[in-house]
Amino acid sequence: MKLLFCTTALFFAALSTASAQVASHQPTGMKMNPAPASTGAAPAVSSMQVSGKPVVRINGVVLTDRDLLREMFDLFPYARLHNGFPKAEEPEIRRGALSMIEFEELVYQEAERRKMTIPAARITQAEGVYRRKFQSEEEFSQYLKDEQGGSEQRLRRQIRRSLLIDALLKLEVNSKSAVTLAEVRDYYEKHPQLFDHGETFAFQTISIMPAENASAEVKQNAKKKAEEMLKKAKATKSYEEFGLLAEKISEDDFRVNMGDHKEVAREKLPDEVVRAAKGMHPGQVSDLIQAGSFYFCFRLNAHVPAGRKKFAEVKSELTSNLQKGKKDGLRKNLNAKLRTNAKVEEL
């Protein structure tokens, strides 16, 4: 019984704490005032420690730390909330941002070389969409002053540049990244091991959990409470009814989520849970299970035997993944091609 209790206790503990861990970052000393989250606008230049210092020259065109920082914010938007970038990650973020602004400038120059055009009406439309991201005309005017030197024509030139970049990427990457159903099925058939899965169970629990060192009287009362709990649990007729009961009387951490443990692999479950679940149908509630001083029952919501996912189950996600891989490859190849005869000088 001691081993049974330990296994079950570890099972509950592992699942309870896994979702509670959050990453923390120590920001750098860079100071800036974040833009309002609802606007999507870049923070004012005057509030950042940027000087317009050149960071890269591409075929004679200079990009500055202002361009670099803007791209770094796009890659790591939480920097606005943390007043800087995580020290450990900042070099990688900077490297990624530098590569991106280089790539975009090369794409823009290629679009100009091909004499691609954007209708004036399309630029006006895009400008209107951009302006509506600001909460007020005053906020937009401040942005125009800080970021565009007060020039709306300069803003329109930047919008045209962005639209040209999008147009060329659509032509050379997006339009060529589609995958056919035949390609998706062929990948599925050639990589069967990727779609194998183990046995899983989805369930909800209601638990009564007195302390292991509690008095005999407390443990006896806990047993009575558990027996009453089981009667109520057995009387429930749906996921929602069982879940509401769990929220009301359960003492495990999953009570805040209607007792739902979602889908759990067989190897992560105590043997007594697996044995009980194998004799149940979805929608049934187990008998009372004791592990040490703990008592619990569970509602089985689904049991998926080990096997291979059918093509129909994975088709949508697999199509998306293959298309993303193809798109990434096309972007990489385009970047390499554009750099072949370009002069890129990191300063």
Folded structure, characterized:
By secondary structure, the chain is an alpha+beta fold. Among the domains are: 45-172, Triger factor/SurA peptide-binding fold, CATH 1.10.4030.10; 199-305, Chitinase A, domain 3, CATH 3.10.50.40. It is 52% helix and 13% strand. The protein is built from twelve helices and nine strands. It has helices at residues 2-18, 65-75, 79-82, 90-113, 120-131, 137-148, 152-172, 181-190, 216-235, 239-249, 271-278, 311-340; strands at residues 54-58, 61-64, 196-197, 200-208, 260-265, 289-291, 294-304, 307-308, 344-346. It has a four-stranded antiparallel beta sheet, with helices on both faces. Strand 1 and strand 2 form a beta hairpin. Helix 2 crosses helix 4 (90-113), helix 4 (90-113) crosses helix 7 (152-172) and helix 5 crosses helix 7 (152-172). The protein starts with a helix and ends with a strand.
